[in-house]
Amino acid sequence: MTNKKQGSLVFVGTGMRMAGQLTPIAQSYIESFDIVIAAVPNIFTRKWLQGVAKEYVCLNDHYDDTKVEGKTRRDTYRRMADTILKEMRAGKKVCAAFYGHPGIFACISHMAIAEAREEGYEAHMEPGISALDCLVADLGIDPGSHGMQSMESTQFMIYKRTLDPTALLILWQVGIAGDLTLKRFDTEPAHLQILVNKLAQYYPLDHEVILYEAATDPLEKTRIDKLRLGDLPKMSYKQITTLVIPPAQTLEKDQAIIDELNALAALRAQVQQAA
């Protein structure tokens, strides 16, 4: 077994709204580790991190890499991971802080943790409050009532996926839907129309859908816009906009399975009576 090296890595989430959504264990790592390397959009969260961290590095400027000819978001994520790993390899205890949950739509954390462990370093992730957690609370949706499907918008568009219209569908990052260049941070009506056309194979165009954006600070309002599926290309979007599509069909019972389960229950009851 590989001996653990000096230096370690932990990824933590700051939640969507840092105030009240930062877990005690995440805060303890932020305050006690040698360096905090962060990628958070909210300026108040960044200032707080900078104030409590022993040393602070902001990764937000790495997104400018996409402006360089030939570079994409993949290059940005790779450089972010490399920046984090460099400090760990220097023997520091590194806390990488990302907004929301550090492992949800955040390939950097999975990439860096896997490489750190391969090299013999201690590395792990602590959960955080994600956009999905806020969505469930803000919209009053229980994913367990009908089941839930969750996927990235462009991934849904370019791969052959089969949807279940009896279950909740959540499409993430609809604000960059259809971008194959991996350089843009927005979308356009033509891309959204392609998305609508594909969704129309499963849902009527007048089916009510929701555009959702979690509030990230006390002054910001949560976005909950309800509209027709067919009207999606007309709307405005941010990179963080999420498309929520409630079930369009009712669940149909599988009577054969129900009968089989009831038969097993009846048999079990007979055995217990005979014992």
UniProtKB/TrEMBL annotation:
- Which Pfam families does UniProt cross-reference here? TP_methylase (PF00590)
Classification via InterPro entries: 4pyrrol_Mease (IPR000878), 4pyrrol_Methylase_sf (IPR035996), 4pyrrole_Mease_sub1 (IPR014777)
User: Any idea where the Tetrapyrrole methylase domain is?
Assistant: 9-227
Protein name as catalogued: Tetrapyrrole methylase domain-containing protein
